[in-house]
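Suppose a colleague, Dr. K., hands you the sequence of a protein chain of 134 amino acids and asks what its three-dimensional shape might be. Before reaching for any lab equipment, you can write down a predicted structure in C-alpha cell form. Begin with the sequence itself:
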Amino acid sequence: MCISFALLGLLLGLLAVAYFLTIWFDGAKFFIEYLKLAGLANKIPHVKKYLTVKSQGSPDTYLEYIEVNKDNFLTRLVTCPKCFSFWISVSFILSYVLAVCLFDLEAGLFLLAISTVLIPAVAFCGLYLYFKIK
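The predicted structure, expressed as C-alpha cells, is then:
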C-alpha cells in the first residue's frame, strides 16, 4: 500500500512540475495579461515600468526583464527552470505527504521517510518532461 502511494506521488508530482514549468516559462505572458485584465498592471510600479519598456520595442519577456532589472535571490529562483522545478517539487511532495498522513498515518510517515528520494526524482523527471514537451 505504501509503495503505491509513493508511485502515485511520483507520477502526480512530475506531471505537476512539468505543468507548472510550462505555464510559468512558456506562458509568462499570462501573468501580465491577467494583471491588465484585472486593472492592476498600471498600479504595480515594476509591471508598469516593464509595460513602458515593452511598448518602446523591447523584445524581452517579463521573466527576462526581471532577471536583468531585479537581480536578487527570489528573481533568480523564479527565472531558473532547475531551481523552480526543485522548489515546486518540495512543495508538492510535502503537501502530498501531509494529505496522505490525513488518511493513512503509516503511509504518510513512509512517504516522509523516502521524500529525500522522491523530491529530486520528481524535480528531475518533471524538468525532463518539461524540456521534452517544450
